[in-house]
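Ligand-bound model needed. zinc ion.
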Amino acid sequence: MISEGKMRSGLISVVKDLEEKGFLPGASGNMSVRLNKTTILITPRGTKKGKLKPSDLVEVSLGGRLLRGSKSPSTELEMHLAIYRHVLEARVVLHAHPPFATAFAVAGLPFDHLAPPEMIESLGRIPLVPYGRSSTKELSHQLVPYLKNQHAFILADHGAVVYGDNLDEAYCRMESLEFCAKVAFLGKLISG
Ligand SMILES: [Zn+2]
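Prediction:
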């Protein structure tokens, strides 16, 4: 059983890694971890994520009630909660704007068929989730039908989201998703 302190510091360390990779431009992106059966910890809204401290994470019930924290939870709270409610094994959710994956998302083009098959085998298909307005329930409604058998998604006109059993798995999935998008883009470019 991992302590709450370790979960907080672990999530913040993943947030900093994503920031360093350039996946969280401005104050964008949001990340969460399942604390127990009924509550999660999520990043607060509007803050430059690389500057966050473990104590800045906000505790929220799966029903969306704020339980602990001096800041407001992320505006994408609903999307995170929808994943935890629908996928029992989801323990970590990461939403970011990695540039290549986001470019495909904005262009409305899936890219997994252009990525190395070996990567897609371990990552699974990467569906393009139809557009749902950011920070609304509409986005969660669009995402839910894709959740059962996939772990990594691009959100039309928006960015990328992954979930995993643990922090390392979720982080690797986000990193691999962006790698696949980059290879797909470069492959297309080279082959004309
Ligand atoms: Zn976003």
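The beta strands are 30-34, 39-42, 58-61, 66-68, 92-96, 128-129, 152-155, 159-164.
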